[in-house]
Every structure is written in C-alpha cells, then in structure tokens.
Amino acid sequence: MSDATAPNPDEESLVDALTGTQKSAILMMLLGEDEAAEILKNLSPREVQHLGGAMYSVQGVDQDTVNAVLDEFLNVIKQQTSLGLGAGNYIRNVLTKALGGDKAQSVLSRITPASSERPIEILDWMDARSIAELIIDEHPQIVALIVSYLDYGLAADVLGLLPHDLQPEVVRRIATLETVQPDAVRELERVMQQKFQANTTLRASQIGGVKAAAKIMNFTKTAMEQRIMKDIKKENKDLMQSIQDSMFVFDNLVMSDDRSLQTLLRSIDTEILVIALKGADEVLREKLFGCMSTRAASNIKDEMEALGPMRLTDVQEAQKQIIAVARKMSDEGTIVLAGRGGDEMV
C-alpha cells in the first residue's frame, strides 16, 4: 500500500521541469473562460504574452502532471480531463473576452500563426525595441504620430531607442501636434498597412500636443531629457519652455495633498528617496517628512547626512524615478497630483 501512495520520480521530474509560468498556464486552463479572462485583465501585456505562449506549450501534458501541479498549488485535484482538447479555441476565447478582439489578435499573432488587425492599438502590445525597429526608417512626422499613440512610458522607451539626432525632432513634432486630420491618419495607415497588412477606421484624432510631449519626457532618463530639450531650444525656445512648464517635476510634489504623498511614499524605495531628497528644497523636504512617522523621518535624515555629497545627475535620476511612480499612480487613480500653478489636477 505504501508503494501505491509514494511519489512517482518520473512525475516529479516532469513537474520540476515546468517553469512557474507553465504551471500557472495549466491552472488557467483548468478554469472556466470567464474566470480566466478576469485574471488576464489584471496582467500586463508582456505577462499576457508569456502566459498565452505557456498555455500553448502545456496543452499536451498528461493528467499525472496536471494533478501534480494542482497538488503543488492547491493540494486539491479539481480536474480529470486532458488539457489538449480544443486548446486553440479556448485560448482564443479567453484572450478575446479579457482583452477584446483586436488586442487578443495581437497576442495570438505572437504565440500562433495569425494576422494582426488594428495596428495602431496593437503597438501598445509590442515591446519598445520592436516598435523602434518598425518605425526607424519612416519620416519623422510618421514617427511622431506613431509615438503619440503609445502609452507615455512605452513612448519614452521607444524614443530612447531612436537615433539621437532624430529624438528632438520627434519630440518637437509631437509637441506641435493637436488635431490629426483624416489625411494624416490615412498616411499613417498606409505605413502601418505595409507593416501589418491591416487598416484602421479613419477619423480626426486628438493626439500629441505640448502636454503629450511633456508626459513622454517625464519618463525619459535625465541625460536624454536634457539633450533633447537643449536641441529643441535651439530651434524653438518658446516650445521648449512650454514643454518644460507642462512637465511634472519633483518640486511639484509640494503642492500635492498629504494623503496622496503618504500613499506615494509607501511605494518608493528608501534608498531612492534619500538620494532624491538630497536635491530637494527645504519646503518640500519638510512637507514629505511631515507625511512620515517621526521615526521614519529621523531615519531618512540620518541616512541623508551619512550619504555625503552626491552627483547632481544621480539626484535628478532618483527624482525622476519617483515622479515616474507618482505619475503611474496618478494615472491609475491611486493618488492625485497637483499640477504646476496649483489649479490643475493631473
């Protein structure tokens, strides 16, 4: 009897060979489509792509492996059938319910042979290097239009992968974009059709502008930001100033409410905060210290003193990391950031 319940060495080796993502994929495929779709909605595009690929890679695993994975995660065997049957339709249905048809098609195009649709929206599901390689030979205006459609963090990453002499030109063109008429969208579609063999609906689009350029610049590295702004200033000083005025900088935190700052501080690594505060003015320092416990504030002050002199570029980089987190939390609705001048909320 004891032999019947002993672990099977071969079974254990199979389970050990699975990655964490593959084990998660097995569990996902044991769920109903609606439940799996709800989980996928909370994952990033990269995570969905990895998990979707893993779901295909494990569709042929045997029942013993499935049971072993269930034992490992849940200690309860809830499924008695093979995963392989109908896996393609299952995965397509789950991704479609979670992401909508267009984005699901984009993910499926990476894990199965499939054609992509709605290329503009699909760009958000591509990695920065792939997008940069896709657009690097296009006219700067086309590049600016495409970058304008991206999420700001992704746009900053793409911008960083473009040639240095092209970067300020792209930011300048983004800053001067406002309403994009159908002719411009048609030209953009022509370019994207060549890349994806698809098309999008023509309509006037509100993209770009100074605020969009400023938000993208908020996500760039300090050295890159300074170089781009310097080049833009050479051609259009007023435009550079407008972009700079619209950027949310570290000192703007002083205008935010205490509750938002407390929430933000809980998400910031102490080491980064210590470096960032080295370059902050006294008013902002006291504001942030007031949002901490007395003990925490005292510890931060001690670490700042022990740190000694810091390079300005290191301080600025730490401040930009905090601003990137702050803007992300603001976009998610977790905190509220008071804009420059105090009368605009971003």
UniProtKB/TrEMBL annotation:
Which residues are in the Flagellar motor switch protein FliG N-terminal domain?
A: 18-119
Q: How does it sit in the membrane?
A: Peripheral membrane protein
**Which chain regions cross the lipid bilayer?**
none
Q: Give the Pfam families listed for this entry.
A: FliG_C (PF01706), FliG_M (PF14841), FliG_N (PF14842)
Keywords for the protein's UniProt record, in alphabetical order: Bacterial flagellum, Cell inner membrane, Cell membrane, Cell projection, Chemotaxis, Cilium, Flagellar rotation, Flagellum, Membrane
Q: Where is it predominantly found? A: other
SUPFAM superfamilies (alphabetical): FliG
Where is it localised? Bacterial flagellum basal body; Cell inner membrane
* Function noted in UniProt: FliG is one of three proteins (FliG, FliN, FliM) that forms the rotor-mounted switch complex (C ring), located at the base of the basal body. This complex interacts with the CheY and CheZ chemotaxis proteins, in addition to contacting components of the motor that determine the direction of flagellar rotation.
Which protein family is it in? Belongs to the FliG family.
What is the recorded name of this protein? Flagellar motor switch protein FliG
Q: Which species does the entry assign this protein to?
A: Nereida ignava
- List the gene name: fliG_2
